[in-house]
Specification:
8 strands; eight-stranded antiparallel barrel; mainly beta
């Protein structure tokens, strides 16, 4: 019951923040005015690698970043853990808030579904909480790197994962 309240509370907070941000407009930059640019409202795709201290395993994965309004993203993602024996994986549906127009800190929460136990046929759901950093986006750089710390709150545990990767803007 507490988990359901937590998920509903996070969802309500994200909707309220989205409504607040909807009225704000991103600062404009002209082609000659600045080296840094505001990320356009276009989807991004990316790849990442990470290490999970709960599983003591490396992971590879990918993600999509779908902008809802400037500064707020919906991020479906997935990871496969490189550990033998057994196939361990995790898929996520998260919402993130960027705390700067050009890059910088971001954070968010969402739902994670993971197969984390070797020999178990069932997946478990839990709450994701994460924070990350992206450097400012430059006009001449096609890749946008990031580093992210993530916790999956599942079965009274909170395994910690550190991930790094990059995103590429998908042109419309």
């Amino acid at each position: 019951m507490q988990f359901a309240r937590l998920v509903v509370g996070c969802a309500c907070a994200m909707v309220m923040l989205a409504q607040t941000a909807r009225g704000q407009e991103a600062p404009r930059s002209t082609p000659d005015s600045a080296e840094y640019v505001v990320p356009p409202l276009a989807p991004e795709a990316g790849a990442r690698v990470g290490y999970d201290w709960g599983l003591e395993a490396w992971s590879i994965g990918g993600q999509f970043r779908v902008p809802i309004v400037p500064g707020i993203y919906l991020i479906p993602s997935g990871d496969y853990y490189l550990r033998t024996p057994g196939a361990l994986w995790q898929v996520n549906l998260d919402a993130a808030i960027r705390l700067g127009w050009y890059g910088g800190l971001y954070g968010g929460a969402g739902l994670g579904i993971a197969h984390r136990a070797i020999g178990s046929g069932r997946a478990q759901a839990g709450l994701n909480v994460f924070a990350g950093f992206t450097p400012p986006r430059l006009r001449r750089r096609p890749l946008w790197p990031f580093i992210e710390a993530r916790w999956l709150l599942i079965q009274n545990r909170s395994p910690f994962t550190l991930r790094a990767g990059f995103n590429v803007l998908l042109e419309r």
